[in-house]
Amino acid sequence: MTDHRMMTRFHGHTHARHDTTPVMELDGVPVTVSVDEDAALWVCGLLDGECVQRPLDLDAAGPEDEWYYEVGEWDEDDEGFEDGEFDEDELRPRCDVDSFEIASELTVAHLGGRPVVITGGGRFDLSGPDLETMGGAVRVWDLRTGRKIGKTLTGHGLGVTALTTVATGPGLLAVSSSEDGELRAWDLTRGERVAALSASYNGGMGAGLLAGRPVAVTGGHDDFVQVWDLIGGEQLGPSLTGIKPAVRALAAVEADGRTVVAAGGDGNALHRWDLDSGEPVGAPLTGHTDCISTMGTARIAGRAIAVTGSNDGTSRVWDLGRGEQLGDPIPGHLETVTELAGAPVAITRAGDEEIRVWDLARAVG
């Protein structure tokens, strides 16, 4: 029997090494986006199943930072060595870009009207024999061509563990957290870092707008959750306690006139707090039988909802204001929550092969 909430399903979109498969509309057609272990970009239609593969431009993937380059065959006696006045073709990269590690995390967005894919590198994204490991570079790629846009953004010492974007009035922000607990935000229009904060080790992270202000919610191998103002560079409200580590999925939304922070992880339950008071909102929401590893939010008929994905192989829809589960569990693990044709949908994966699209309005109604 077909579940009335399911809009479509498709087999075979399994090219990625990252944990989630983002979906977006490209020329009015919903597509999945992934990057495989050889740094090939895959764009697959959810309606016709057609896949287009193109390589990412790895020749442009290195950082523009001075530390990344060294003088080729010159030595200290050569004229110009001390003042560093060399032509570009006299310089060479000091380490290699690892194609396997280049897209440990991945998300999609529109930047200046152009569809792009944003990647976050793993721990060994950039490494070489004479350097300590340099991981966690964030890069923006043109979705149609695979060419890099703007600078390679560095600053994480280890691999990126969570990556998302926030659309603001001045421009698109990329927000990432890493194994070493560093939270970073970049203005992708200008290629400038706007936030560098210390959060939780092996950080989980969610980001969005609260009252028009870009914020990030972080957790990880700590028994607390924190909310950060990405522009002001400061923590909002107290640290939120009472959750069992590790914390893996996080969000903050306006619900019933207050800011509700939601988080889940290895404790299997979804916790909620009032950000202003720091106090829990009701009892933890239970139902999952394994850890919560992903979460997305949406607003439907004025209600703030969260969809959680668990390692128990199901996804669940929750009313964050009322603290109740809506409908039966959705089969499959949540990949992302997004909009298609202006309607909120949940994307789940069943096993290793099947992608399913769910109408959240039907799930709530």
Task: Describe the model.
The chain is mostly beta strands and 365 residues long. It is 1% helix and 52% strand. It has one helix at 360-364, and strands at 6-11, 23-26, 29-35, 40-45, 51-55, 69-71, 91-93, 96-97, 105-111, 114-120, 126-127, 138-142, 148-153, 160-167, 172-178, 182-187, 192-198, 204-210, 213-219, 224-229, 234-241, 247-255, 258-265, 270-274, 292-300, 303-310, 314-319, 324-325, 330-331, 333-340, 343-350, 354-359. Strand 25 and strand 26 (303-310) form a beta hairpin. The longest helix has 5 residues, at 360-364. It is globular, with a radius of gyration of 21 Å. The chain starts with 5 loop residues before the first strand and ends with a helix. 45% of the residues are buried.
| Straight-line distance between termini | 19 Å
The main pleated sheet reads as:
5 strands, antiparallel
CATH fold description of the domain at 204-331: Methylamine Dehydrogenase, Chain H
**Number of β-strand runs:** 32
Radius of gyration: 21 Å
Q: Strand-residue fraction? A: over 45%
Report the structural category. Answer: mainly beta
Poorly predicted runs of 5 or more residues = 80-84
**Fraction in helix:** under 10%
CATH H-level homologous superfamily name of the domain at 204-331: YVTN repeat-like/Quinoprotein amine dehydrogenase
Please work out how many helical segments DSSP would assign.
1
Kindly report the average pLDDT value: 89
CATH class category of the domain at 204-331: Mainly Beta
CATH architecture of the domain at 204-331: 7 Propeller
